[in-house]
Design a protein that fits this description.
Blueprint lengths: L4 E5 L4 E4 L3 E5 L1 E4 L3 E9 L2 E4 L7 E5 L4 E9 L4 E3 L3 E6 L16 E4 L4 E3 L5 E4 L1 E3 L5 E6 L2 E2 L7 E4 L8 E9 L2 E4 L3 E5 L8 H4 L6 E6 L12 H14 L3 E6 L1
Parallel strand pairs: 2-10, 12-20, 21-22
Antiparallel strand pairs: 1-4, 3-7, 5-6, 5-8, 8-9, 8-10, 11-14, 13-17, 15-16, 15-18, 18-19, 18-20
Length: 246
């Protein structure tokens, strides 16, 4: 019977930088001696890990994958552990995780300020490393958002009342870490562009310089005539022209 085996310690999900070394643990009790076998799943491909027959599975993080452990007894009873996720961050800033990292949350992606039209979707995203993998909680204007407990905050149809200052808390048993606070603007004017692009043009001015006397170069054929012709063209296009010679 499957109840002849009881898993006493489930493996736990982790969120780690690429190249990080760690162990996934599984413990079980049964009426006879037990055998362990680990499996991994990347996308939809589930496969047995050759040689992974110990309670602890050593991993060097390379890509995000799911893992589970099968436990058998001598009577062919078998149970599987929970599936756990090993999330691997490929692009973590240099110097992370900190030295002597104990698995406390470390923010690796902060949300960004946004301008969103009313009725359009609002999506904010953050990410943190941690062992075990952190849980997430979003806040707006200091108030807990009861339904927003993932690293991606999603509001399908934004309302003006969704405007405000947002931030997210990532936490695990070692502590908590907060993202930067960002302002979200719903139904306001679109994101301002640079000052040079927002000010109306008050006039068009062209500066033309015609040089004919060069110290180390032969004189040009007709710079004065060229400046004159170009000035007429620019004035026709609405420019105020300033012409200088030599």
């Amino acid at each position: 019977f499957s109840t002849a085996i009881a898993i006493t310690e489930q493996p736990v999900s982790v969120s780690v930088p690429v190249g990080y070394s760690f162990m996934l643990r599984c413990r079980a009790q049964g009426h006879t001696s037990l055998q362990y076998q680990w499996f991994c799943q990347c996308q939809s491909d589930c496969r047995l890990i050759p040689g992974a027959t110990n309670q602890d599975l050593p991993i060097i993080a390379e890509q995000t994958q799911l893992y589970t452990c099968r436990v058998n007894d001598l009577h062919r009873n078998a149970v599987f552990s929970d599936w756990v996720k090993v999330e691997v961050h490929q692009c973590v800033a240099r110097g992370l995780p900190p030295q002597l990292w104990q698995g406390e949350p470390v923010i690796v992606l902060n949300p960004s300020e946004q301008w969103v039209e009313v009725g359009q979707p609002l999506q904010l995203q953050c990410a943190a490393m941690g062992v075990p993998a952190p849980s997430y909680q979003w806040y707006r204007n200091g108030n807990l958002l009861e339904q927003q407990k993932r690293k991606k905050l999603w509001i399908a149809h934004a309302k003006v009342s969704d405007s405000g200052t947002y931030l997210c808390c990532a936490s695990n048993r070692h502590g908590e870490h907060w993202t930067n606070a960002v302002d979200i603007h719903i139904g306001e004017q679109s994101q301002p562009t640079s000052l040079c692009c927002t000010l109306p043009a008050t006039g068009k001015i062209a500066l033309l310089v015609g040089n004919n006397r060069y110290q180390h170069h032969p004189n040009l054929m007709a710079p004065v005539r060229d400046v004159f012709e170009l000035s007429r063209l620019l004035e026709h296009l609405g420019f105020q022209v300033v012409s200088l010679l030599d």
